[in-house]
Design brief:
This protein is mainly α. Helix 3 packs antiparallel against helix 4, helix 6 runs antiparallel to helix 7 and helix 6 runs parallel beside helix 8. It starts with 15 loop residues before the first helix and ends in a 15-residue tail after the last helix.
């Protein structure tokens, strides 16, 4: 019987060992200056080549010095690179899971192996950015909002790993701790209407519902977001509209979570 997925020769520099060797290089062996890698990340983003963008932004992090940190635009690029790279794997796994329902049993072993390969790639990407956050960016972060962003991002990527973790494996509890740390810091340093604080609170509520199965706590968290915004005045009409749109997203999640028999998939917005 012919294999379901015939072997193909990888393009130059794209095999697993090549990718691993590139990512394992110490900072001193990285090609190009910090500015050159930022520019290449910009090109990779425009070309939707997010795995390449991950490589370039990883180099940028290694070249970032204490005292200067990353600019807001650089932080955004880092998060965009890793989230999009992970997103393609999450979508692929969802497609495979859906298609598997209609496959004959004899094909399942090969499909399961293929799925495991994609899950392994997803975990590797998540672990890479968590390592960058813990080992480089959090220790040199100076602003409180910057620290909240990094803690929230840490929670996000642990949350992406959680659905595929073995019992007791890495993901669920680490995500919960990162979100708790982010919200503890945000609550004491950032105003309720701050977009970073709101995003961390929303993603924490999603983690409680989808990952930990603690729907009552998720509902309480979401309601707390809405309560914290009561009576808040806004300097601009744009900020008011932005916050109203955010509140609408939270209310949509609440409407689903409070339905009888709401399951883990009952979420309108799972990321912010």
């Amino acid at each position: 019987q012919a294999p379901l997925f015939p072997a193909r020769s990888p393009a130059p520099g794209t095999c697993d060992s090549c990718r691993a060797s590139r990512r394992d290089r110490p900072p001193t062996a990285m090609s190009g200056t910090r500015e050159e890698n930022l520019k290449m990340a910009e090109f990779a983003d425009a070309s939707a080549r997010y795995d390449d963008m991950v490589t370039y932004m990883g180099r940028v992090v290694h070249m970032t010095k204490s005292g200067s940190g990353m600019s807001p635009d650089e932080r955004d690029s880092l998060i965009v690179a890793f989230k999009n790279s992970v997103s393609t794997r999450r979508k692929a796994i969802a497609v495979i899971d859906k298609m598997t329902e209609a496959l004959p049993p004899e094909l399942l072993p090969e499909i399961k192996a293929y799925r495991a390969k994609i899950v392994g790639e997803l975990n590797q990407i998540c672990e890479e950015i968590v390592s960058l956050l813990e080992g480089y960016l959090l220790p040199i972060a100076t602003g409180e909002e910057e620290k909240v962003i990094y803690l929230k991002t840490q929670g996000d990527f642990y949350r992406y790993m959680a659905p595929y973790a073995a019992p007791g494996g890495k993901g669920p509890q680490e995500a919960a701790k990162a979100y708790n740390d982010a919200m503890e810091l945000a609550a004491s340093t950032l105003p309720p209407e701050n977009s970073t604080r709101l995003g961390a609170a929303l993603n924490q509520s999603v983690c409680l519902h989808e990952v930990l199965g603690q729907t009552e706590q998720a509902i309480a968290c979401a309601k707390g977001i809405l309560t914290s915004l009561e009576g808040v005045t806004f300097d601009t009409e744009d900020k008011l509209q932005e916050t109203e749109q955010f509140k609408s997203l939270v209310q949509d999640n609440l409407a689903l979570w409070t339905q009888p028999g709401a399951g883990a998939d009952g979420t309108t917005v799972e990321d912010f």
